[in-house]
Design goal:
129 residues, alpha+beta, Ribosomal Protein L22, Chain A, 3-stranded antiparallel sheet, 4 helices, 3 strands, 44% helix, flat
């Protein structure tokens, strides 16, 4: 690896060690449905966000709750101290993943395309000053 690439990789490594995040890849829920649930917890403290997700009836809420617990656990491992009330959800980014393309039979010998969507979710925590 060249010197410039090595320095850039070291900068990225330092930046990642200072951020507390968790990533969920290839979640079989459409990005729109996941984004609607993610909008509920953006900017909330961790305790409030867990309560919102726990009592939400959508399927995506359960997946996000598990992801949030993972991010909290990552914070506790990196800092060595338990999560407190200053910890909040900084960003929740939902990107579309791969699509399974299927065919549904239609009248008169035709076929309609069904797209079974998936998504990637990145959840970043931060500390309020």
């Amino acid at each position: 690896m060249g010197k410039r690439k090595h320095e850039y990789a070291e900068k990225l490594k330092e930046k990642r060690s200072a951020t507390y995040y968790a990533v969920l890849r290839n979640c079989p829920t459409s990005p729109r449905k996941m984004n609607q649930v993610a909008a509920l917890i953006r900017g909330l403290s961790v305790d409030k966000a867990l309560n919102v997700l726990k009592y939400n009836t959508r399927e995506a809420a359960g997946r996000l709750e598990k992801l949030l617990k993972s991010a909290i656990n990552n914070y506790e491992q990196k800092t060595g101290q338990p999560a407190n009330e200053n910890l909040y959800v900084k960003t929740v980014k939902v990107d579309s993943g791969f699509q399974l393309k299927r065919l549904r039979t239609a009248p008169q010998g035709r076929a309609y395309r069904i797209r079974k969507r998936s998504n990637h979710v990145t959840l970043i925590l931060d500390i309020k000053n």
